[in-house]
Design a protein that fits this description.
alpha/beta; Rossmann fold; seven-stranded parallel beta sheet; globular
């Protein structure tokens, strides 16, 4: 494994499982000191232990990313304890799927707050340190659902919002040598997609099989498939890439 991130400090939100955990592990394997952020530090510990078991450097942080004051305090802690803040991966997300005509306002608010407002909170906190340092990489998780997906009006709106947010932040923060990009995964085998399968009355295995049949590459994605793309965008290999949303979906249209 290369050492693209030696001397870099990365924050990954929603890093207890799935894409977040895989991304934290990948960045650490390539030399980053990783702040593993989830709702509680206890939830983040398993990812930290996996990183340390491979000889990497990581610390667990509990933070409700929808709470701006909590985010500001957590990022200040990360900066103080790890010495800098070079990379932010906005990955925290939830689904509250349901047809729009019967979607309660609470499900709309929860998904918008966790998936979109948290990206504002974390990016706002991170850019202060990045601007001062004259260096930064912000990578946010969008989704193929941004193009529209039955039963996901709230999630689709949040993930589409991330794309507009990313394009705008790239324009505003470019002068400070901060790259801002997004990754839009297709079907990835995670706990979240397993929950979706349950919602529509099938098993995770059958759901994945159906998705694989619709995918030109003939398989569903794994969290590591997304982590490798996030790592590219967070690295200096992508130093002239900014304001982009990269769809990572096995060729599905």
């Amino acid at each position: 494994m290369s050492s693209r991130f030696t001397g870099r400090v990365a924050v990954v939100t929603g890093a207890a499982q799935g894409i977040g955990a895989a991304t934290a592990l990948r960045l650490a394997e390539e030399g980053a000191a990783v702040a593993v952020v989830d709702l509680t530090a206890e939830r983040a510990e398993a990812t930290v232990e996996a990183i340390r078991a491979k000889g990497g450097q990581a610390s667990a942080y509990g933070c409700d990313v929808t709470d701006q004051d909590a985010v500001e305090a957590t990022f200040a802690r990360v900066h103080d304890e790890l010495g800098a803040l070079h990379i932010l991966v906005n990955n925290a997300g939830v689904t509250r799927d349901g047809m729009f005509f019967k979607m309660p306002k609470s499900d709309w608010d929860t998904v918008i707050n966790v998936n979109l407002s948290s990206v504002y909170n974390c990016s706002q906190a991170a850019q202060k340190y990045m601007s001062q340092a004259g260096y930064g990489k912000i990578v946010s998780l969008s989704s193929r659902s941004a193009l529209g997906n039955r039963g996901q009006a709230n999630y689709a709106a949040a993930k589409a919002g991330i794309q507009g947010f990313t394009a705008t932040l790239a324009i505003e923060l470019g002068r400070f040598n901060i790259n801002v990009n997004a990754v839009a995964p297709g079907y990835i085998a995670t706990a979240m997609t397993a929950a979706t399968a349950e919602r529509v009355g099938t098993t995770a295995e059958d759901h994945q099989k159906l998705a694989a049949e619709r995918t030109p590459l003939g398989r569903v994605g794994q969290p590591e498939d997304i982590a490798s793309v996030v790592a590219f965008l967070a690295s200096d290999d992508a130093s002239y890439v900014s304001g982009q949303t990269l769809y990572v979906n096995g060729g599905a249209r």
